[in-house]
Amino acid sequence: MSSSSPFLTALAITFFSALAFHPLSDYVFNNPVQFGIVDTREQLSKISQYLQSGRDSNVLFLGSSLVLRPAISCDSTPDWAKKPGIIPSKLQFIYHYDKADYFRRMLDNACHGDFTVYNLGVPDASVSDDCLLLDAAIKSGKHPKLVICGIAPRDFLASDQPDPDNTAIHEAVTHLNENERLSGSFTDQFFKFQRVLQRDLGLFRAIATSYRPPQIGHAPNRRGTRAKVGNDLADLGLYQKRYNPPNMRAFPLQVHSLEKLLQVAHAHNVTVILVSMPLTRENLSLLNPQALLEYKKSVDTVARSNHVVYVDLEQNSGYDRDDFWDSVHLNARGGGKFYRQLTAAIVSHPTLVSSLPTHKQLPTTY
C-alpha cells in the first residue's frame, strides 16, 4: 500500500463530506438569522452600495460597530428616552444602517448648515480596513469633506485580529470590481470549490457554536430581542480573550495603517477628526496597562505628526455604565453625550468647520 493512501483517504472523506453538507450550508447561508448567525453579507453590503452609488456625503464616519451602534440607538429612540434613568429596550443591530441623523441634525444646528452624513461603520473593522475604505471611496469618485474616524484599543491590539490583507472588508473591497471569470478552466473551478468549502466549514463552525440556552430572568420582547434591566456587561468575557495577550505583532501594522489613512486624506484635501471612542472602566481594566499606554502614545504621536485633531473620549469623559449596552457600545443616552461632545469638538476647531462646504457664523458655545 502506498504511503500516500492515508492522505488520499482523508482528502476523499473531506471532499465527500463537503458535498454532503453543501445543500444544508446553502440553506443556512441564505437564511442566517434563523440560525443565530451574523450575516457577513449584510455587514458588508453597504460598502458596495456606497462605493457603487452616486451618493457623495459631506461627512463620512469610519470605524467599527462603536460608531455604528450609537447612530442606530439615537436615530431610532425619541429624545425623552435619552434622559438619565430611562433604560430603553435593546434594539436589533441593523448592520447595514448607514445614517447618523441625530448627529447630522445637531451639526446642522451648530454650524447653521445643511450637511449630508454617511455612516460607513462596519462591525469588527480595524484601522487598516478604515484606510482601505477611505482609499476606495476616493477612487470611486467620493469627495468627503470631513472624515470622523472612531478608534479603540481593539482595533490595534485584539488577539483575534486577522492580518490586514485577510479581513472580510479587505476581501470585499478587493473583489468588488472584479469581473467574474467565465473561462471554465480547472483552476477557476478549483478556486471556486475552495471558496465554497471555506464558506461551508465556517458556517458549520458557526452553527456548532451559535446556540445559547435562554437566560433566566430575560424575557423576549415584541421585537424578538431580550429586554433586560440595566447593563450586565455581558461581553467582558469576550474582551478578556480579545485583549489577552495583546496582539503586539499586529499593533505596528495598525499604527502604520492609521498613518497611511491620514496621509491619503491629506493628499486628497480631506479633513480628519480622530476620536478615541468611550469605553467603560470595566472594559479598559482588562487591557494590559503597558499595551494601553503604548496604544495611547502611538495614536497621539501619529495625530500630532499629521496635524490632525484628536479627541480622546476613552475615559474620564462623563460616561457611566448606564450609557452603554454592554462594555463598549453606546446606547441612546450615551450616544447623545457622544454626539454633543463630537459636535462641540468640531465647532471649537476652525480647521474642522472650514472643511465643511457651507457654514455661517457659529455660536460661541455649544
The percentage helix is: 40-55%
CATH class: Alpha Beta
Strands in their spatial order, largest beta sheet: 2-1-3-6-7
- The portion of residues forming beta strands comes to 5-15%
Number of domains: 1
CATH homologous superfamily (4th level) name:
SGNH hydrolase
CA gyration radius, whole angstroms: 22 Å
Low-confidence blocks of residues? 28-38, 86-91, 179-192, 205-229, 360-366
Find the structural class using helix and strand composition: alpha/beta
Mean pLDDT: 79
In short:
Helices cover 49% and strands 7% of the residues.
Can you walk me through this structure?
The chain has 366 residues and is an alpha/beta fold. The protein has one domain: 3-Layer(aba) Sandwich (Rossmann fold). It has a five-stranded parallel β-sheet, with helices on both faces. Helix 2 packs parallel to helix 7, helix 4 packs parallel to helix 13 and helix 5 runs parallel beside helix 10.
Give the SSE layout:
Elements: H1 5-30, H2 40-52, E1 59-62, H3 65-75, H4 101-111, E2 117-119, H5 127-139, E3 146-151, H6 153-157, H7 168-174, H8 186-210, E4 219-220, E5 226-227, H9 236-243, H10 251-267, E6 271-276, H11 281-284, H12 289-305, E7 309-312, H13 332-347, H14 350-355
Parallel strand pairs: 1-2, 1-3, 3-6, 6-7
Antiparallel strand pairs: 4-5
Features:
alpha/beta; Rossmann fold; five-stranded parallel beta sheet
